[in-house]
Amino acid sequence: MNNTQLTGLLERMTLEEKIAQMLQLVVSYFVESEEDGQITGPMESLGITEDTVNQVGSALGIGGAARVIQVQQTHLKNDRLGIPMLFMADIVHGYKTIFPIPLAIGCSWDQGLAEQSAAIAAKESAVSGLHVTFAPMVDLVRDPRWGRVMESTGEDPYLNSLFARSFVRGFQGDDLATDVNRVAACVKHFAAYGAGEGGREYNTVDLSERQLREYYLPAYKAALEEGCELVMTSFNTVHGSPATGNRALMRDVLRTEFGFDGVLISDWGAVIELIAHGVAEDEEQAAYLAVQAGVDIEMMTSCYVKHLPELVRSGKVDESLIDEAVLRILKLKNKLGLFENPLRGADPEAEREIVYCDEHRAASRELASKSCVLLKNTGVLPLQPEQQIALIGPFAQSKDILGSWSWTGAEERFMNLNEAIQGKMTSSKVLVAEGSGIDTITEQQMQEAVEVARQSDVIVLALGESSLMSGEGGSRTDIRLPEAQLQLIAKLRTLDKPMVVVLFNGRPLDLHGVEDQVDAVLEAWFPGSEGASAIIDILYGDVNPSGRLTMSFPQSVGQIPVYYNHYNTGRPKKESEPDNRYASQYLDSPNEPLYPFGYGLSYTEFKYEEMVLSAEEMTSDLPLQITTKITNKGNRAGEEVVQLYIRDITGEVVRPMKELKAYSKVLLQPGESKEVSFTVTEEQLKYHHYDLSYTSDAGEFAVFVGPNSRDAGERRFRLLK
Fold first, then answer.
1. Cβ-based burial of 576 (10 A; exposed 0-12, middle 13-18, buried ≥19)
2. How would you class 343 by CB atoms within 10 Å of its CB: exposed for 0-12, middle for 13-18, buried for 19 or more?
3. What DSSP letter does each residue of 41-105 carry, written as one string?
4. For 540-549, 577-586, 597-606, which range has the lowest pLDDT when averaged over its residues?
5. pTM higher than 0.70 for the full model?
6. Which pLDDT score, from 0 to 100, does residue 629 have?
7. Which of 90, 139, 143, 267 is catalytic?
8. Is the keyword Hydrolase in the record (predicted)?
9. Is 267 a catalytic residue?
10. How much is the mean pLDDT over the chain?
């Protein structure tokens, strides 16, 4: 259809038909049985009629080509104007082929593989009948107590923005109308959902306008610049107003300033939650606030369909607001080609061939291997084929390695860690014991673990959180490993055997009782369908670990939030004054995280030579060239993530100690050297000033190049204006 035809279709719709387009319901409203797994959020009696269901604009959480075809064909028979439905779902890090959680994908620092993972997720979900994925989540996160840190790519606005673009490109491709192997992306959660107080889910957010713009908005904006078709509102407040009813945020910033003209959808139940927030007296007022803010689709509450018709007829809401929302929905359906092909890519036969195919599984394995981060290694890794291994822990034989938002994952078709290691080694070389549950331990489990460990050369402990301990609704105040697993570590430590810990988790952890007790720590996160094989590849050295953290690991929960791009304060702690009490510090802990942003080890050693600057001064017309030489000093090939940070020494407002501005992944053979060059422009030195103007300061800057945010060489230059 062209725009004239879409407008004509809109004019033929009754007010009730238009408003029904603005309602999204779960699949159980359209099929007799619900088999699509756990549904999150508050489920309330919606009080809607069968006529409304027949006219509804979109469905949530459906999957499977045959089912989608059935529901769409039934809907088209019942809808007076034959307007097809949109089918949406949370395909966050894979459909059937599950990739590592997004936080892990961020730790790969590989935008190409991130894009590929989204493209594969899109292909599998599109052939299964879906049109829209609720991804990427680009919320910046600094508090690992919040369970949904697993769904973000970390604590840095620049890196988050790069990955936001990669995911959108992967999901959407170049032409949604003709490429039925792609789906529309929905960036979430707008805005600043990751800044909830206390790391508590759905909690209040209170940020200054400058903080919001400097750190939290860039990744959303990057996704929109890449062409993201939908935006989802966040549950939290922004400047005292819940996002879903926040006209200034949605109309002024998102629509006018950012130029977004796509579909804005609420999160689950967020419209009716305006009442609980205390800004709406009842459902009618909630509907009024949300439509005035520009929310086009209400997810799983019925404030719109029950109250907007009367609000329009009474003159309290201008029907033009309804028309603009519905026209955006129709345009999205048209962009997806649904009016000409309402079944789009849904194809049961192709679904059987494409979903979880060998090619997709290989891509998942590669990304998993690049997402794992080696945090500690005293030389026990890589393991040697002749060694007798004791594989112990609650994740030794568990398939709970997919993480949250893997509701469609093919659990019956992938290997656990024991199966993967048995596939590589003879059974005589690997002894297995459960050791403990996630948070329970018995004397028998302990004895079996000790007996197995005594027969081994190396103990490999597979430990961590269950997938339900992170993700949505997974906030925790204690982010250590459960006590049962810490007891297991302590007991096995008495055997004086080399110990390796493989961690499965959805957040940075407080590693007290782990890092200080063992010889090696491999952070595997929730690595996805092929994660077990990828981990074995790393443990035995078939793959040299190259992952680098995109979120800092705290010394303890008492430091949180702890992040690399912090301010200096007026009384910074100085190494030259260790006994000065009156500095910004803790009496019982270092200020620094245990493992900083950008950190990760390798099985080889990289040496950095001192960086060379093309000049000591730069201008807007004369960028600065920064070059350093990296040498692989070890005996095996390895990939290094060379990171460039900048600090504005004196700004109009306080500037961070370091800010990531660029990076380069470099593969080096043993003994090989390569020069790595970066170009620093005046644009990279800009920030939001006191009056929110976005500009740079003349003066002195520090530039850092190194393997992480902590261990980097420093030089100075000046910007002339």
1. exposed
2. middle
3. S--------HHHHHH-SEEES---HHHHHHHHHHHHHHSTT-PPPEEEE--SSBSSSBPPPHHHH
4. 577-586
5. yes
6. 98
7. 267
8. yes
9. yes
10. 95
